Amino acid sequence: MTSASYLEHYLDSLEHLPIELQRNFNLMRDLDSRAQGVMRNIDKLADDFLSNIKALSPEKKKENMSAIQSQFNKAKEFGDDKVQLAIQTYELVDKHIRRLDSDLARFESEIQDKALLSSTRTQEESATQKRGRKKAKDKEKKKRVAGGSSAEEEVSKTARKKQKKTGGKSGTGPGKGATTTTNSATENSLLSAIPINHPSAVDVLDMPVDPNEPTYCLCHQVSYGEMIGCDNPDCPIEWFHFACVGLSTKPKGKWFCPKCSADRKKK
């Protein structure tokens, strides 16, 4: 999946978020207004009760106290509803943040996989090219060896012809000496035309990269970003991404992953 696809899907999931947030904020504001009205009513009842407490009978006092307690209970209900709405709003936003972190992790993993695949293909192509160059060099060597043999045969034939003309002798006269010198020069010229083969340099191949990279965490992804280790030495996973276990900063003291925490509670 491309980065544009990830972004498009994420923006689609955010389409209704502003409306939901606005609704929750309006409800919280309404609950807060009601709670403040109840608190003002409590203050008024308390002032009336304290100002007339001496003139009230025990039954009337009990009745007024019950009315004040009822108002306190109503204010507490409004406060609890407001807290629940605040938690719901936080979880709503946090859900989108976790999804964004998850999408980023998957996108980064895909990029790493593509880079690894590209590196493997490049190495294979490089090895193929080197094998091709080696084959071409081997063919060139065979041609040079074959060409050298032909030149040697030509030199041998020329030498035999010259030997027949001179009778196989090396005379001391100027004419004969000049012929012998000419024959040697001709042989040397033909010999110099024979190619000399030299060993080619050894091609050094790059070291291959290990494609197996370990994975961690509950999401079974590779290591990236900030991670935290479980303090249980027998933890099967050991390392976790902050976002996957709901952390934004490193906690103080020992920390145990969700699985190890559940196992510890059972004990």
TrEMBL record:
<keyword id="KW-0539">Nucleus</keyword>
<feature type="binding site">
    <location>
        <position position="219"/>
    </location>
    <ligand>
        <name>Zn(2+) 1</name>
    </ligand>
</feature>
<protein>
    <recommendedName>
        <fullName>Inhibitor of growth protein</fullName>
    </recommendedName>
</protein>
<feature type="site" description="Histone H3K4me3 binding">
    <location>
        <position position="227"/>
    </location>
</feature>
<feature type="binding site">
    <location>
        <position position="257"/>
    </location>
    <ligand>
        <name>Zn(2+) 2</name>
    </ligand>
</feature>
<feature type="site" description="Histone H3K4me3 binding">
    <location>
        <position position="239"/>
    </location>
</feature>
<dbReference type="InterPro" id="IPR019786">
    <property type="entry name" value="Zinc_finger_PHD-type_CS"/>
</dbReference>
<feature type="compositionally biased region" description="Basic residues">
    <location>
        <begin position="158"/>
        <end position="167"/>
    </location>
</feature>
<keyword id="KW-0156">Chromatin regulator</keyword>
<feature type="binding site">
    <location>
        <position position="217"/>
    </location>
    <ligand>
        <name>Zn(2+) 1</name>
    </ligand>
</feature>
<dbReference type="InterPro" id="IPR019787">
    <property type="entry name" value="Znf_PHD-finger"/>
</dbReference>
<dbReference type="InterPro" id="IPR024610">
    <property type="entry name" value="ING_N_histone-binding"/>
</dbReference>
<dbReference type="InterPro" id="IPR011011">
    <property type="entry name" value="Znf_FYVE_PHD"/>
</dbReference>
<feature type="site" description="Histone H3K4me3 binding">
    <location>
        <position position="216"/>
    </location>
</feature>
<dbReference type="InterPro" id="IPR028651">
    <property type="entry name" value="ING_fam"/>
</dbReference>
<dbReference type="GO" id="GO:0006355">
    <property type="term" value="P:regulation of DNA-templated transcription"/>
</dbReference>
<dbReference type="InterPro" id="IPR001965">
    <property type="entry name" value="Znf_PHD"/>
</dbReference>
<feature type="binding site">
    <location>
        <position position="260"/>
    </location>
    <ligand>
        <name>Zn(2+) 2</name>
    </ligand>
</feature>
<dbReference type="Pfam" id="PF12998">
    <property type="entry name" value="ING"/>
</dbReference>
<dbReference type="GO" id="GO:0005634">
    <property type="term" value="C:nucleus"/>
</dbReference>
<feature type="binding site">
    <location>
        <position position="230"/>
    </location>
    <ligand>
        <name>Zn(2+) 2</name>
    </ligand>
</feature>
<keyword id="KW-0479">Metal-binding</keyword>
<feature type="binding site">
    <location>
        <position position="241"/>
    </location>
    <ligand>
        <name>Zn(2+) 1</name>
    </ligand>
</feature>
<keyword id="KW-0862">Zinc</keyword>
<feature type="region of interest" description="Disordered">
    <location>
        <begin position="117"/>
        <end position="183"/>
    </location>
</feature>
<feature type="domain" description="PHD-type">
    <location>
        <begin position="214"/>
        <end position="263"/>
    </location>
</feature>
<feature type="binding site">
    <location>
        <position position="244"/>
    </location>
    <ligand>
        <name>Zn(2+) 1</name>
    </ligand>
</feature>
<feature type="binding site">
    <location>
        <position position="235"/>
    </location>
    <ligand>
        <name>Zn(2+) 2</name>
    </ligand>
</feature>
<comment type="subunit">
    <text>Component of an histone acetyltransferase complex. Interacts with H3K4me3 and to a lesser extent with H3K4me2.</text>
</comment>
<comment type="similarity">
    <text>Belongs to the ING family.</text>
</comment>
<dbReference type="GO" id="GO:0006325">
    <property type="term" value="P:chromatin organization"/>
</dbReference>
<feature type="site" description="Histone H3K4me3 binding">
    <location>
        <position position="231"/>
    </location>
</feature>
<dbReference type="GO" id="GO:0008270">
    <property type="term" value="F:zinc ion binding"/>
</dbReference>
<comment type="function">
    <text>Component of an histone acetyltransferase complex.</text>
</comment>
<dbReference type="InterPro" id="IPR013083">
    <property type="entry name" value="Znf_RING/FYVE/PHD"/>
</dbReference>
<feature type="compositionally biased region" description="Basic residues">
    <location>
        <begin position="130"/>
        <end position="145"/>
    </location>
</feature>
<keyword id="KW-0863">Zinc-finger</keyword>
